[in-house]
Structure formats: structure tokens, C-alpha cells
Amino acid sequence: MKEIFPLIVAILWAGVLQAQTKQGSAPRKNNTEAAWVKHIPTEDLIKWRRHIHQNPEVSFKEEQTSKYVEDVLKSLGNIEITKPAKTSVIGMLKGAKPGKTVAFRADMDALPMQEETDLPFKSKVENVMHSCGHDAHTAMLLGTATTLSKMQNQLKGTVYFIFQHAEEQPPGGAIDIINSGALKGVGAFFGMHVLPNFPAGHVGILPVGAASTAQDIFNLSIIGKGSHGSMPHLGIDPIVVGAAIVSALQTIVSRNVEPGEMTVVTIGKFQSGDAFNVIADRAELAASIRTTSDKTRKQVEERIKEIIENITKAYGAAYELDYISTYPAIQNDPALNEQARKSAETTLGKEKVFDAPMMTASEDFAYYRKIAPINFMTLGIGKGAANHNPKFTVDESALIDGVKTQVQVILDYLNE
């Protein structure tokens, strides 16, 4: 997932457990388990996840990962395979009976960071790590494909298993897959993301409508005029200009955006100068902007550009601005959200399904809405470091619950 999840999930987890206690719903085993659960390849789930974890590949370079996925799908014997992009794989399973078409997506790319865990299967690749859980996503969808492949005679309709490249790196792999035209007739897209600091194996139903944020980025160069520190009147100080811009940008959320409309403007980079007694001639700034609606997204972009234009002009400086719009917000469909909740409760029990807070991270899964309605869920993986942290780990006991939920969601959608 793009960027780190907020640390507040730890507090929210406590709230989930407290709510369960109030409802008198202590964890219990689901005694009405479906017959197909026996087809879930429990041991292979762990094997697949650990192999992928040990051999991570960054965005657009998932060559060995996609080959590994392709080999597993081929071994099932009844999955049709296409390669919509160089490092993406789509498996298609046609049921014995005609019906609707549904897709479930997993992402496969890792992040450019050094792993700092003590796992016996830690990354063997220097400065590359599955610190967002995409190794778990890939393993779970392989488990779902394996389970459903053994149920082909009972299956009504068609299932696409999307193993996507490059979720972490804009413009993202989803666009490549959509533009390939490989997803014919899909009526709904589902996705799932692992999330630490929620109970392992508990499924979070994200809100209807904006379930995540849109993310925009800007890179700004302020071009001033260098001078000696003792003669500031002969220069144009880009640090002073930049400081004024940073301060003014903070008023966008407090004074321009409608109250209650989730918006974040974060200046993550401000670099200038090399010496204490020299006025630099240039400053470099970079920012991340999070919004949830198209209206606010446009409003914030316009306001940022106005502030930069007018402040630099007021100080006599020049500037170069690169404003990049990346992923839109995930917009969860109401009907699919309700179906996902019922499916998760059917296979896991109500006590393992909860209302998840909106993700303040962004995800290119949002693009699949260009084709059909979408639904995105979360899967708790227990206490631990946040996504995108070098100490990130997964409680592997959660993986089987992820597969159960995915299979039930697919079956319910096709059979409704």
C-alpha cells in the first residue's frame, strides 16, 4: 500500500476488542464451516508466502515473482493464464455453469528498504523487502485460486485472479492491466490488504464511498539569488520564500477546505544551502497531499498553485513546480460492501468481522472502478510494526482466514 498506515490503528484495535466485549461475543470457532474449506492448501500458503518474502522484487521488476505465480497456476491444470503486462499475471477459471464474472486482485511488488527482522526466511535481496504485505496478498490469492480450481464443476460463472505488478510506484500497475483489455465482462472487483495492529484473521469492512485517500505529490524548486550572509539585501533568500510558502500551505486545510472533509497537506522535504554564512540560490521542497473527494482534490491543487505563484512573486523569486496526481480514492460500492460483510460473517463468524476506519493511505486498486464497482477489505495480522516499516511482520495464522473470506466472497457474488 502506498505510504504507511497511521499509528492510530493500535488504538482502534483496542476499540474493536472493547466493542466485542460489550456485545458479549467472545471469539469462537465457526461450527458451520463449508465443505470446500478442506481444499484450502494450508501448508502451501505458508510455503508460497515465505518464498516470495525471501525473494522480493520492486515495482515493475517482479519478473521472478510473476514466473513463480504463473508456475503455481499452471500446476492447477484448469486455470487459463494471460500476461497483461510484463510482470503481471491473470488466471481465469471458467465454471462448469454459465454465470457472472468476478475478479479478485492481489499486488506482488516489494519496497526498496533493508529488512530488520529476525525471520529465518527474511529477504535475501539487499535493500528490498516485502514490508507492506504483498507477499501475503499473493499467497492468499494463490490459495483462493487453488481452492476454487478444485470446485470447477460446482462453479457458476467466471473468476479472474489478478496478480498485479507495481502497486507501490505511480502510475501503478492497475492502469496497465486495465488498458490491456484483458478483463472482459467483469462485473465486480474485490481486493484485500493486510493490516497490523488488528486481531489476526479479523476482517475489516471499510466504509462505503471513500475507503482510502487520493494522493497527489508536488516537487517545488524555488529559484532565488545567492549572496553573502552579511549582505542579504543583495540576494533573494529561497529559504525565507520557502518558509512563507510552507506556512501559507497549512492554512488550506484550516481555512479553505470544508470542515469535516478529510484533507492532509504534508511538506516532507525542505532542503537548501550548504554553509551558515551563505544565502543559497535555490531551495527544494516536496509534499504529499491526501484528499477523499474529486471536488476537494481539485480545490487543494488550485490553492497550492496560487500560494506558490503569489508568494514567489511577492519576494521576487522564480519557481519550477511539478504537480503529480497519483491514485484516486477507493470508492467502495454499497452493495458489494454489504455482500462482503455477509460473506466474511458466513465463513468466519460475526465476531471476526468489524467496521474498519477509512485508510489514510492510497491504493491503485481504486482504478478498477473504471471497469466495474469495487470493494476493498482489510485483514488483521496481529500486533507489530506498521506497513512500510523494516520490522514489519505477518502473523501467518491470518492467511487461512483471508483465503476463506476471498473464496466465500467470490462464491456469494457468483451465486446471488
In words, what does this structure look like?
Its cofactor is Mn(2+). Mn(2+) binds at residues 132, 134, 168, 193, 388. Residues 218-314 form the Peptidase M20 dimerisation domain. With 416 residues, the protein is of the alpha/beta class. It folds into 2 domains: 9-212 and 329-415, Zn peptidases (Aminopeptidase); 214-325, 2-Layer Sandwich (Alpha-Beta Plaits), CATH 3.30.70.360. 33% of the residues lie in helices and 23% in strands. The chain has 10 helices and 16 strands. The protein has helices at 9-23, 42-54, 63-76, 134-149, 173-180, 238-249, 251-256, 294-315, 334-348, 398-415; strands at 80-82, 89-94, 97-107, 156-164, 188-195, 203-205, 209-210, 214-223, 227-228, 263-272, 278-279, 282-291, 318-325, 331-332, 353-355, 374-380. It has an 8-stranded mixed beta sheet, sandwiched between helices. Helix 4 (134-149) links the parallel strand 3 (97-107) and strand 4. It is elongated and about 80 Å long. Mean pLDDT is 93; it is low at 4-29.
The CATH superfamily of the largest domain is known as Zn peptidases
Q: Total number of helical segments?
A: 10
* Total number of domains: 2
CATH topology descriptor of the largest domain:
Aminopeptidase
The CATH architecture category of the largest domain equals 3-Layer(aba) Sandwich
Q: What is the oligomeric state here?
A: single chain
Q: How would you spell out the order of helices and strands?
A: HHHEEEHEHEEEEEHHEEEHEEHEEH
Give the overall silhouette. Answer: elongated
* Percent helix: 25-40%
